[in-house]
Structure to design on (711 residues):
């Protein structure tokens, strides 16, 4: 038997050689793949389809580094208005220079290509904690992704603590709106510009619907994980929790940590599943520390009040500027008026009138302060909107759970 | 053919067959679901005429190396012929170095392969990974992607040397008990995947918390109906009583907290007021924001 030969050998290469590309014949392409060649991007992006593998990778990365916000690359393909995200990889946060970062990503993509994983970047993901992800860096990065008109890149926002608490995956896909891109190109965010482009806090980002779809094999795996073969026998044979994730998730969703009887209960979690301490190894501290103390709401409210303060500050600043501008305008109007009056008086005395001061001269004399950029205020408002919306939405389930608890209590 | 999923038997084998090698034997293994999905994805993206795929498993170990948690993995290209096997070690090293940068804690803990039976080169590859995972033994995860018996069996194995001399080709694979681990955050992602399996269109649309809660309550109601029917059946003597189920029900009823009626209504009222106040305040803020925005457009 021959020994094992271990040496580097690139097994596949998706990239055609240059000469092969030249001999490329479009007519040999199957019809359903033709939209791939749609370089002009005549079809607008309609939906983002994420593979469970990519979702799990994002979730894992975000969970392990909680509460730090992390990001990574999305790999996939855009076809016919559907952006398929098939894989993702983490980008380390502590990498030094920009160059290191780029090298890391290039190397990673090349390595993944060797094993036939989609090698085109279709965007990136970022994790958030409270839901106030509307930050300048995020917009800048996304703008650079969307810089070329053919690039259909999205940013996926994953909220770890919301997912854990609600028992409902929080994954949203966004793209920058055309209005924002237009203004960012001109770098002018004055009140007038905003109004002209119709840019408000609500439409900086456009949300796209997210679909989760896996391969048939992945579906088979999920089925296997949900109800492993022989789980019923195992259940009856010994008092053991099924390895099915259904029960646990259901318990998670029904339990509201901030709801009724914080002190008296501690039971909501275990109410639905037989308690059995799971033998976790080296459980990341983040997992336990994930906003489970019921402090999530108060933290959110704190963030909201901070943002409101900032909002008021911004508004005051703007008012200050507005007053300054009005003062200058006033002075200018007075100057022109005085001059006109003087001229009238001179004419009455039969003297020649002074020449009108040209507009440019006037502008120079009464130069109003440039309007401060409204972008910061706009982002602040957008964050405030996101946070309050999140809190409002979380109240519905909270109320429902409270009344459920009441029903349970009365039935007792 | 190895038969698994017999934790008690498996661990006894591990104990009695404990190796005398320098490596420490692993006794318990936890697997994260993301690993399984990665393996499947790799299998789907294999080259033409390739029967199985292999890759490196990454994870963390307890200090004594007895418990291992497999957290992630990456694919390694390899090439099998009748009489030899080539594994792209360069790729393995590059990927590991890249992985290290993003998640520094994860070590090489073993390797995975697909297929219903072990590859004939498994021993050789196991030998290589044992050296990579030193001083601990390497874990081998096998996924039956051919769906033998209609199930996607997952097995964890570890190698033990057999025979007198330590030949790399001589290796016996012993079953290793494993358990899947579902951190809370991953559960939600898996739920989305499960929804996609059950939906008719083949994909799952992410829904709001409220709808999700509604679904949960529906499921809970269905479960209650089933349990009630069972209990009544037992009471009437139609159904054969089962002690284990009875114990479960007892346990469940016991954890419902017993709160004094008065205390409960106080708690209920306070919480209700809190919730309503928060909802009111946030809605007020939103209204204010809207007004400010409209005003600004007029100015």
């Amino acid at each position: 038997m021959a020994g094992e030969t271990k040496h580097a050998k690139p097994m596949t290469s998706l990239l055609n050689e240059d000469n092969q590309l030249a001999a490329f014949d479009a007519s040999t392409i199957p019809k359903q793949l033709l939209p791939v060649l749609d370089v002009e991007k005549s079809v607008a992006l309609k939906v983002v389809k994420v593979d469970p593998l990519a979702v799990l990778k994002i979730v894992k990365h975000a969970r392990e580094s909680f509460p730090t916000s992390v990001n990574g690359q999305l790999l996939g393909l855009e076809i016919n208005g559907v952006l398929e995200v098939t894989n993702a990889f983490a980008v380390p946060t502590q990498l030094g220079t920009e160059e290191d970062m780029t090298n890391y990503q290039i190397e990673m993509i090349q390595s993944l290509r060797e094993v036939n994983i989609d090698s085109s970047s279709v965007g990136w993901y970022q994790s958030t904690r409270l839901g106030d992800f509307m930050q300048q860096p995020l917009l800048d990065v996304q703008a650079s992704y969307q810089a070329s008109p053919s690039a259909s890149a999205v940013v996926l926002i994953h909220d770890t603590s919301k997912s854990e608490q609600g028992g409902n995956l929080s994954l949203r896909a966004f793209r920058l709106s055309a209005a924002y891109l237009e203004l960012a190109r001109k770098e002018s965010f004055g009140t007038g510009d905003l109004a002209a482009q119709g840019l408000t806090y609500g439409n900086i980002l456009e949300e796209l619907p997210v679909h989760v779809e896996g391969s048939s094999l992945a579906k088979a795996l999920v089925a296997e994980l949900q109800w492993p073969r022989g789980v019923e026998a195992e259940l009856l044979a010994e008092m053991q929790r099924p390895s099915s994730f259904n029960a646990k998730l259901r318990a998670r969703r029904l339990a509201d940590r901030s709801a009724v009887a914080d002190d008296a209960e501690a039971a909501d979690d275990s109410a639905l599943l037989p308690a059995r301490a799971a033998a976790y190894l080296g459980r990341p501290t983040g997992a336990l520390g994930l906003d489970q103390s019921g402090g999530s709401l108060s933290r959110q409210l704190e963030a909201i009040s901070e943002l409101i303060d900032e909002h008021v500050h911004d508004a005051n600043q703007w008012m200050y500027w507005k007053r300054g501008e009005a003062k200058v305008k006033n002075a200018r109007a007075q100057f022109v008026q005085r001059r006109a009056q003087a001229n009238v008086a001179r004419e009455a005395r039969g003297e020649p009138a002074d020449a009108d001061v040209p507009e440019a001269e006037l502008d120079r004399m009464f130069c109003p302060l440039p309007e401060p950029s409204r972008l910061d205020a706009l982002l602040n408002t957008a964050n405030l909107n996101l946070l309050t919306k999140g809190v409002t939405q979380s109240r519905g389930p909270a109320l429902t759970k409270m009344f459920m608890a009441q029903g349970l209590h009365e039935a007792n | 053919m190895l038969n698994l999923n017999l934790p008690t038997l498996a661990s006894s084998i591990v104990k009695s067959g404990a190796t005398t090698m320098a490596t420490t034997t692993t006794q318990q293994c936890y697997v994260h679901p993301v690993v399984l999905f990665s393996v499947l994805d790799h299998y789907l993206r294999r080259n033409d005429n390739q029967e199985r795929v292999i890759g490196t498993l990454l994870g963390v170990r307890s200090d004594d190396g007895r418990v291992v948690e497999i957290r992630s993995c990456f694919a390694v290209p390899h090439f099998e012929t009748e009489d030899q096997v080539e594994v792209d070690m360069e790729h393995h090293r590059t990927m590991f170095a890249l992985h290290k940068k993003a998640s520094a804690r994860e070590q090489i803990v073993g390797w995975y392969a697909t297929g219903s039976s072990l590859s004939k080169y498994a021993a050789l590859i196991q030998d290589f990974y044992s050296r990579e995972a030193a001083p601990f033994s390497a874990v081998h995860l096998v996924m039956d992607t051919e769906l033998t018996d209609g199930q996607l069996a997952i097995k964890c194995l570890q190698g033990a040397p057999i025979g007198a001399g330590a030949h790399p080709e001589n290796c016996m694979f012993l079953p290793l008990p494993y358990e899947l681990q579902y951190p809370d955050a991953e559960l939600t992602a898996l739920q989305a995947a499960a929804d996609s399996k059950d939906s008719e269109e083949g994909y799952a649309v992410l829904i709001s918390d409220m709808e999700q809660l509604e679904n949960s309550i529906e499921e809970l109601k269905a479960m209650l109906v089933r349990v009630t029917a069972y209990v009544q059946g037992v009471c009437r003597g139609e159904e054969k009583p089962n002690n284990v189920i009875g114990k479960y029900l007892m346990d469940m009823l016991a954890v419902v907290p017993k709160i004094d009626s008065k205390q409960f209504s106080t708690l209920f009222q306070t919480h209700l007021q809190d919730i309503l106040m928060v909802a009111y305040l946030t809605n007020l803020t939103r209204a204010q924001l809207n007004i400010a925005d409209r005003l600004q457009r007029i100015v």
